[in-house]
Specification:
Length: 352
């Protein structure tokens, strides 16, 4: 306990109470602070600032939220700050893509060949995304569980080069990817996202079903395909106005295009720590292909359509396909439902 006038600074972990005046206080606050603080009080958990408190504030027990001006806050019994979400820890193999607005679409005037991606302001909620494209070994683990639990799935094969555990899974259909996400969810004891009825009571496990947005439990904590907006937000890695995930230019040293499929993570990650958003294999998204973009908050694509949208370049395409705004309908990409150059990665909506 600190008691009495504190004319200097207090820095550190306080497990008791602080009573009196202080020029400033910084630390993990487990007790109370009473008295007038001359300048600023900062309470933090795990190094994350919870509140900046102006002069004249007093009595920590009066605090309600960390964002309220001129209040002091303290940790609760679990070490959390009232009114502040706990510090997010990404699940293994995933990274957090922060919420926020970005310009979706092509903003590079010279790229006149992109005619289906007029820029629009889009906001997405925070989500987790797989760091890597789903690999053959990842697919196999879930596949073996799934076929023993009522699912029908292709066994897939990566890159047309035979089973290699750390290569991206390919030669699967959009339907396979969606069902696999459900199986991955159930295996992990999470709530599946995809259903075959609008009441969302029948889990999608078999057949080729053209699901609608109404058959998606968007609030579920299970795995799913990214929406097209989520994919582009993630691909840009926090950059704006750039062609590619790593900037305006691309070379074979930083992205896998016009070559051969490679193990995931063989090239530098983007600003969010995601690998191969600019090549290796292209990726399925949830959305039907359509124009123009809807924009707004958490768009989920057209209500219906003939084919789904494909994003990201691949080792079988030219470097231009690796642009963040490049997009193509499934039938325009390969003319069939699967390809050795087409895979996917999954996301989670639930963020603490």
């Amino acid at each position: 306990m600190f008691s009495g006038p504190l004319t200097g600074n207090v820095t550190g972990n306080v497990t008791g109470n602080v009573s009196g005046s202080a020029a400033s206080f910084t630390g993990n606050l487990a007790g109370d602070v009473a008295g007038t603080q001359a300048t600023t009080v900062i309470a933090s958990v795990g190094g994350v600032t919870a509140a900046n408190v102006a002069a004249g504030a007093n009595l920590a027990n009066a605090a309600t939220t960390a964002s309220t001006p001129n209040t002091l806050v303290k940790r609760d019994a679990n070490g959390n700050i009232p009114g502040v979400a706990p510090v997010s820890t990404a699940p293994a193999g995933m990274v957090l893509i922060p919420a926020g607005a970005f310009t979706m679409g092509n903003t590079v005037a010279a790229d006149t060949d992109i005619t289906d991606a007029a820029p629009v302001t889009t906001t997405v909620s925070a989500f987790y995304m797989d760091i890597n494209e789903v690999t053959q070994s990842q697919w196999d683990v879930v596949y073996l569980w799934a076929i023993d639990h009522g699912y029908s799935l292709s066994d897939g094969v990566n890159g047309g080069v035979g089973p290699s555990p750390n290569f991206p899974l390919s030669n699967v259909t959009w339907y396979d990817c969606v069902k696999w996400c459900n199986a991955r969810s159930e295996r992990a004891e999470k709530t599946p996202v995809y259903y075959t009825n609008n009441a969302q009571t029948t889990i999608y496990k078999t057949g080729n079903v053209n699901l609608t947005n109404a058959q998606v439990k968007w609030t579920a904590n299970g795995y799913r395909l990214p929406t097209e907006a989520e994919w582009e937000k993630a691909a840009r890695g926090g950059l704006s106005g750039q062609r590619f995930p790593l900037g305006m230019l691309i070379t074979n040293r930083i992205a896998n295009y016009e070559g051969f499929v490679a193990p995931v993570g063989s090239y530098p990650p983007n600003g969010y720590g995601l690998n191969d958003m600019d090549g290796n294999v292209s990726e399925f998204c949830w959305d039907w292909y359509g124009t123009p973009y809807a924009g707004g908050t958490d768009p989920r694509g057209p209500a219906a359509g003939p084919v789904r949208v494909i994003r990201g370049g691949s080792c079988g395409l030219a470097g231009g396909s690796s642009r963040c705004a490049w997009r193509v309908p499934l039938d325009g990409y390969i003319g069939q439902e699967s390809s050795p150059y087409l895979g996917f990665r999954s996301v989670l909506s639930e963020v603490p």
